[in-house]
Amino acid sequence: MKMSVGLLAHRRFLPLFITQMLGAFNDNLFKTAMVLLATYKIIDSPQMQTLFSAVATGLFILPFFLLSALSGQLADMRDKAAIIRIVKTAEVFIMLLGAGGLLLHETPTVAIPMMLAAVLAMGVHSTFFGPIKYAILPQHLESDEVLGGTGLVEAGTYLAILGGTITAGFVADDPRITALLVLVVAGIGWFTGRQVPPAPPVGEIEKLDFHFVRASIRLVSNTMHIPRLFLAICSISFFWAIGAVLIVEFPPLVKNVLTADETVASVFLAIFSVGVAIGSVIINRMLKGEVSARYSPGSVIVMGLFVVLLFAVAKSWTGLPGGELYDWRGFLAHSGAPLMIVALLGVAVAGGMFVVPLYAFLTTTVSKAETARTVAANNIVNSGAMVIGSVCAILMSLFGLPPAEQLLVVAAMCIVSAWLGWKLHRACD
Question: Where are the bilayer-spanning segments (predicted)?
Answer without folding.
Answer: 50-70, 82-104, 110-130, 151-171, 177-193, 229-251, 263-283, 295-317, 337-362, 383-401, 407-424
